[in-house]
Amino acid sequence: LDVKHNSTGVESIYTDWNDFEIMFHVSTLLPFSQNDPQQVERKRHLGNNIVCLVFIEPNATYNPSCLTTEFIHVYVAIQPVIENGVTKYRMATATKIGIPTFRPNLTPYSLYEKSPEFRDFLLRKLVNSERASYHAPIFATKIRRTREQLL
């Protein structure tokens, strides 16, 4: 979080889970530039992640191709659903070709009640999706190239 130059905003969402520190780039918390209709800085931060968690408003749709990036390898979409006054979340994933399967597996209807167990399930899915991405042939090549340039 760059609070000196405000390139990433002054607030973010952070959590600590199973010895992992997880920081989320939240699009609406990233600085908005009046002079940039394309919001290039926002896209730079979002598009340079390996995993993109998308919160979809009820009755809305999302198309992963709206954010052009070579770096995002996994999209995890969450959409709230209210059933009999209970908040549940529908979850779906989309991966680039070559990403190996990763656990935990989604249930047949992929509908989960809001609970500490769902939080654990979601965070485990996100962490494992990033780990799986490292094993994709195209991503492994990018990592190797980056490491060679740094060494």
- Helix-strand makeup class: alpha+beta
Distance between the termini: 26 Å
Q: How would a crystallographer describe the biggest sheet? A: 4 strands, mixed
Number of helices: 3
Give helix and strand order, one letter per element, not per position: EEHEEEEHH
Quantity of strands, as a count: 6
State the helical fraction: 25-40%
Mean pLDDT: 88
Beta percentage is 25-35%
The low-confidence runs, each spanning 5 or more residues with pLDDT under 50, are none
Instruction: Give the neighbour order of strands across the main sheet.
Output: 3-4-5-6
Shape: globular
- The quaternary structure here is single chain
Description:
- The protein contains three helices and six strands.
- It has helices spanning 40-47, 116-133, 137-150; strands at residues 13-17, 20-24, 51-55, 74-83, 86-95, 111-113.
- The strands form two sheets. A four-stranded mixed sheet has the order 3-4-5-6. It has a two-stranded antiparallel ribbon with strand order 1-2.
- A hairpin with a 2-residue loop joins β1 and β2.
- It is globular.
- The relative contact order is 0.13.
- The mean pLDDT is 88.
